[in-house]
Design goal:
heterodimer, A: 434 Repressor (Amino-terminal Domain), two-stranded parallel ribbon, 2 strands, extended, B: alpha+beta, 7-stranded mixed β-sheet, two-stranded antiparallel ribbon, 3 helices
Chain lengths: 130, 174
């Protein structure tokens, strides 16, 4: 069975969809999925989390569906009882990729670096070497 | 009198292939009817449902906890998902509101979902709601017919069970 070239769902969303709703649904589902994974990793069920947080199991089920809009207070409570952060808020980092050739006999062309602007302090830079 | 229906591929994402059903040789599938009608009647609610479909399709796959069970006579489901005793919510103009739109569907596996039709649910039970009752009943009838077609091998899986196939002239009967 051939799928149509025109994806009517994407087309509708491109023409009529709200960017705000897109971000909201995406973030709510990402948070819910992260909590779901954290529970699975620990061998816990929604009912266990409800006991840990002293909440009704129905409320935890709601959180796990991806339709709930979380407050930072709720997220922090979950992070605290599960001992892991759900959301990571960190300063943006610039990565510099360097290619280093060691003990190579053949001549190499001179390495050219593109001009780039990096707005970061030296201590804030993470260098990855390949 | 029996009704006949054909399967129509709707959209293919990385993790989910979505199909719908055309009843009695109609050109528009049930899902297309749903989209067209709610585009004007309930645009923001439809927006949420379509975003769920897209994100489930692209990122998560059709995991069971992302669908609400709506089985009566068969294993039908619906979007949006639900908790046990609550209404699903969405945000409109910054306020949280209950999203009472229902799109009935069949989650065949994590990679294949049939999207049917739906409407705004106004009562606790779908069977009591004048809007969704017919869609709910039809979803259960179609789910039963599709399940039977899988058993009879009228509908077959591809190798990795990410798509389905059937004869061009195959019709579901229910």
């Amino acid at each position: 069975m051939e799928f149509p070239k025109n994806n009517i769902i994407d087309t509708w969303l491109n023409e009529n969809g709200s960017p705000e709703i897109e971000k909201l649904v995406e973030k709510n589902m990402a948070i819910a999925n992260k909590i779901y994974e954290m529970l699975e990793e620990r061998g816990l069920k929604a009912a266990d989390l409800s006991r840990m947080l002293n909440k009704k199991p129905s409320e935890i089920s709601k959180w796990l569906t991806g339709t709930h809009t979380f407050t930072t207070k709720t997220i922090t409570k979950i992070e605290t009882v599960l001992g892991e952060d759900i959301i990571h808020i960190e300063a943006q980092k610039e990565f510099i990729y360097l290619k280093i050739y060691a003990n190579q006999e053949e001549d190499l062309e001179e390495t050219e670096f593109e001009n780039s602007e990096v707005f970061a302090t030296e201590s804030g830079l993470e260098k990855k070497v390949s | 009198m029996n009704t006949f229906a054909q399967i129509k591929p709707i959209a293919k994402y990385d993790k989910v292939s979505y199909y719908s059903i055309c009843i009695d040789n109609q050109e528009l599938s049930l899902f297309e009817e749903f989209s067209v009608y709610h585009s004007t009647a309930n645009e923001k609610k439809l927006n949420h449902v379509l975003e769920w479909i897209k994100i489930i399709g692209n990122k998560y796959g059709a995991l069971p906890h992302l669908f609400r069970p709506e089985g009566e006579t068969a294993d039908a489901s619906a979007l949006p998902p639900k908790g046990m005793n609550r209404k699903p919510h969405y945000t409109e103009y910054g306020n949280t509101k209950a999203n009472n739109i229902r799109l009935y569907c069949l989650r065949a596996n994590e990679s294949v979902v049939f999207l049917f039709n739906g409407d705004i649910k106004t009562t606790l039970y779908a069977q009591d709601c004048p809007n969704v009752k017919k869609h709910f009943k039809l979803a259960n009838q179609l789910t039963k017919a599709i399940d039977k077609a899988f058993v009879d091998k009228d509908i077959v899986w591809n190798n990795d069970q990410t798509e389905i196939n059937c004869e061009d002239n195959f019709k579901l009967e229910f």
